[in-house]
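ligand=6-O-phosphono-beta-D-glucopyranose
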Amino acid sequence: MYHNQIKGFPKDFLWGASTSAYQVEGAFNEDGKGLSVQDVSKHPEGTTDFKVTSDFYHNYKEDIKLFSEMGFKAFRFSIAWTRILPNGIGEINEKGIKFYDNLIDELLSYGIEPIVTMYHFDLPVEIEKKGGWSRRETIDDFENYAKILFERFGDKINYWLTINEQNMMILHGSVLGITGDNGENPGKKAYQQNHHMLLAQAKAMKLCHNMCPKAKIGPAPNISCVYPATSKPEDALAASNFSSIRNWLYLDAAVFGRYNSIAWSYMEEKGCTPVIEEGDMDILKDAHPDFIAFNYYASATVAESIRDKTNDKSKVVVNVDQQASFEELGVVKGITNPNLEKNEFGWEIDPVGFRNTLRELNERYDLPLIVTENGLGAFDKLEDGDIVNDDYRIDFLRKHIEQGKLAINDGVKFFGYCPWSAIDLVSTHEGCSKRYGFVYVNRDEFDLKDLRRIKKKSFYWYKDVIKSNGNQL
Ligand code: BG6
């Protein structure tokens, strides 16, 4: 829809950027921190591990100063469960509490709003050893951890995010080094884990409202609008299947406290509905997010997948990827969208899809929306004189912000934008040469060099964007 007059971003719009603990902090075994599943996960050959990353743990003051120079109004980061509770439960590690207390105070001293993710892919190893999210007790462990966070940081935090990209953990488990179970019916295990995470999230949201009445809390899934490959009705059905399985299953449970009916029938068909105990649905119904945080990288395009009698062995797909090369017979088939360009890693680029996604979320849930990730991974080049000309990143972000601005005219209650990432960090599975930050960190895949911070061209550009409240793009 064309708008004659652009309303622009609200005055108090939360401009900022994001990171996650295990991808940026390093210091994986310092000051009493326990191991997380990420600290011990296997990495594809040629990519770095998460032991040092960008060493934010030792450089947070310098880094936050840079964020303030860019004019950040908000900074979205995650707390490592294993810094607070090295074994996932039990004794509190006061040094871990101190680190986040200092980090939060540092942000507040610059007037930067801390937006805290409680759990970003880094389950404590000690909990994983007992069965991780497959076991029901992990729900209580998470609630106990949440209680400590609200007790210790509740007076300073206005925005909490529960679980980062729960949907990607379920659909991408092995790529993220999390679930990775390729047994006979991986879907059965994954959807049981999903149910437990949904309950843990609901309990944390309720607890937050009881313990920190002024704070706001919401889920943080990865959401993409889904296009049918053609106007063929069967393709539209496939798009509806995929939207339900990829997006709405997670948000319908978080917002409405019920399972999405298409996703449920899919799980029934695959024999992987979760065991739901008495009272579970009441727990889901009883929790209400104040907003939805979501990560957006690209849209998805899908077509009908035909399952005939000769090819009846359809497994649940638990490895959907961004490169569209997935198919689940009789359900959906990923298609490359011929209208979209791709980045160096084969991820499609779709700024208009960003507006579509914002609109769809608004229509469906009618809640305020904040974007907690969006960005371009690229092989940046450090040139002589400490220059990084990342015009491609500026172009990517500019186009997305433009579309976000139009979505506000569309009526979307869009209140913050925190792209990925504030500073270079280690990608989930493609090492540290895949860079996302506004600030370059001088290190290679395995050579830590001097970890010097260098402002990229996008740093200066984003500074002007924030200063002009999104008017100067
Ligand atoms: C999101 C995650 O899925 O995408 C981040 O929340 C991740 O942790 C980001 O880094 C980009 O993905 P990748 O695989 O390029 O690191």
